[in-house]
Amino acid sequence: MENDVIKILICEDDPSVNKLLSLTMEVEEYDYTAVQTGKDALRELVTHRPDVLILDLGLPDMDGREIIEKVRGFSQLPIIVVSARGEETDKIGALDAGADDYLTKPFSTDELLARLRVSLRRAKFADKNLSALTEKTEFINGWLRIDFLSKCVFVNGEEIHLTPIEYKLLCLLSENIDRVLTYHFIVKEIWGYYEEDFSALRVFANTLRKKIELNPAHPKIIQTHIGVGYRMVKIDEK
């Protein structure tokens, strides 16, 4: 994928930050559109289908998290949040809604571009990375079933909704059932870069448990190995 065919949508209401982001995309020769409201962003997303959304949370007409939730109803494009909200609860909320990455203002444009490249690579090779799984049409472990063809997940026969990151984490664990995967390995496989902060991973592991475990307070399928990582346990009973 060449830069001149990659379409970036910027949604940022602060004029100075909007201009900085626009100039950065222009210098890097990305095809970009910059808007300042959530409504304009949703209109662009539906009509022009950009490859990546760079999104501020504090917009004048709606909260950025609401936009993420709406987008995830019809698209899996990478969403990078760039926000002045630095509280962990804001980060967790955005990631849980379906954002792929989160940068806190002030930020380095070099870091933003690095995250952007990672998101593009991850989107491009997502299916390839799961090729070993998709050779099989489904995965069953106790009450859990993954349909790889439709990318649907079922608990006791009932379909549940997973965010893109939750689905990737679930597939990665299922591909390595009964093996302990380290935090570093999981982050590298899902986000595509080395990270020492595992807070986002813990958020997704917890939200995934709430959706697939029969009793999230006493999880049986996803086991935590404290200080090491996570393991999907083989369940014999259904």
Automatic annotation (TrEMBL):
Residues 7-120 form the Response regulatory domain. It comes from the Bacteria. CDD domains: REC_OmpR_KdpE-like, trans_reg_C. Residues 134-234 bind DNA. Residues 134-234 form the OmpR/PhoB-type domain. One of its GO terms (molecular function) is transcription cis-regulatory region binding. Transmembrane segments: none annotated. GO terms for biological process: regulation of DNA-templated transcription. Gene3D superfamilies: 3.40.50.2300, 6.10.250.690, Winged helix-like DNA-binding domain superfamily/Winged helix DNA-binding domain. The modification 4-aspartylphosphate is found at D56. Keywords: DNA-binding, Phosphoprotein, Transcription, Transcription regulation, Two-component regulatory system. This is DNA-binding response regulator.
